[in-house]
Amino acid sequence: MRERGVSRVREQRLRQGGLFVPLVFSFAASLEQLTPEAFLASATKASNGLRTVFASFDVDGVAGWCDDTAPADTLSCTLDWCTYPPAVVEAPPPEVAPDLGRIGVAGATGVATDVVRRLGSLLPDTVLVGTMPGPVTLARQLAGPGAGGPDSGDSTPGEGLERVRVAAKACLAYAKALGDAGLDLLLVREEALLVPTDGVSAGDIARLYSSIWNTARFYGLTALLALGGEGARDVVGGRHDARAGAGGPSAQSASAYSAAGLLALAGVVDGLVAPPALIEHWSDVLDHGFRRIGLALPANLPAQPVDVIDAYLRGHAVAERMRDGRLFLVTTDGEVPPSTDRAALLVGLMTIRDHVRGAGARDA
Question: What's the whole-model pTM score?
């Protein structure tokens, strides 16, 4: 049963859309003078730090949990915290079945649900946003370093699909736990999409995601498929490249995210968040049942000079999209780096926020 109480203010914001919620998450560790690892291990420190972040930046919601390795940690993978985000360095033997009963209760996912629950009490009228890995991404994590992805040539289509099915069950359990805790908006992040092949049908792919989205609807949780982390290609050397994205997504993103893979999810997944280049590239595909669309700005954009931010936003017609009512969410394509200078981040977020809100006000 969903624990968070009803708030008319929060529900109205979710209905209206046009939200600006950057993924400022592990950055809050610096406010508590902790490393990201220590910060994310303490629900008290994390929830207090995130509340401070929300109060400081005056955006439309708070990133309540964005550690996409939390399910892998809970399912007994070993993480390397020398860098952030941490990397999976060792996975359990393949013959050991994942203990899905730990999801949302133990390990990092247990902390995650505790943080979301606490934020729901501390900020009852605030939209809570969280991320989690999608089935393909989690399957790769659970396979361990050096293993081929489920869509690689290292396994038969059936074997790869079975690995993703196991991961999808873990994702479903995590979505349920976050819905129980009171999350409002869930970004299901995928680093690649499966595409229909001789051994994997469009129906097979759709079924991997349908239970996650059905569960999200049951809990009143808005789930969006979040694709892409191509921000570094749009802000080159700290300067906006006006040509970035003009000819479509990069070769890497084009190979990872095909139109066929996206079409297989149409009608099951009803919301999508992606970098502007991918949204522009998929303009025709998005007419097939994707009701909520969000833009994922480069995670390093808020730390750039104001003129660079303005050039990027204008170059990708963010204000025009907002005025036309086409944007449910503006966020970042990953976490804002925890090492970002606080003063620069404040100015950058205010610049983006005012751009987004000004477009909405002119449209009202």
Answer: 0.90
